[in-house]
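Re: that chain you flagged

S.,

Sorry for the slow reply, it's been a week of failed gels. I finally had a moment to sit down with the sequence you sent. For the record, here it is as I used it:
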Amino acid sequence: MSGKKLTCFECGQVNRVPFDKLMAGPKCGTCGTGLMTGGVAEVDLATLEKAARTDDVPIVVDFWAPWCGPCRQMAPQFQAAASDLKPQARLVKLNTEDHPNAGAKFRIRGIPTMAAFSNGKVRARQSGAMPSSAIVSWVKASV
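Prediction finished late last night. Pasting the structure tokens below so you have them in one place:
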């Protein structure tokens, strides 16, 4: 069975989704969570690492913190970009306050910082708040 591997951001299970089902709202076979919702999921470091290693669809991470004004300002723009990028990429957020090791592991020096993962590697990174149109353009050029 051919298709794309997608990690469930809720339970961490890797799912194989047929190509023709990517736009049909695929769900995790284990927990039933939507895999390709066009929304932004909040992830922890372990889930991000697993998804970055295994997923066939690029993942774009917004490293942020609740106290960061530009991060809060960019949140709705990031959400709008997630909708526009479905099914080309899946967008997630990682709270650097809750997961301080993520900042060190991915060399995050300032927030908000976005990183685009494809085939297990960081393909691009961008710091600073951006409008949704710029996020979409950056992702399309990066992955």
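What I noticed first: Residues 69-85 form the longest helix (17 residues).

Talk soon,
D.
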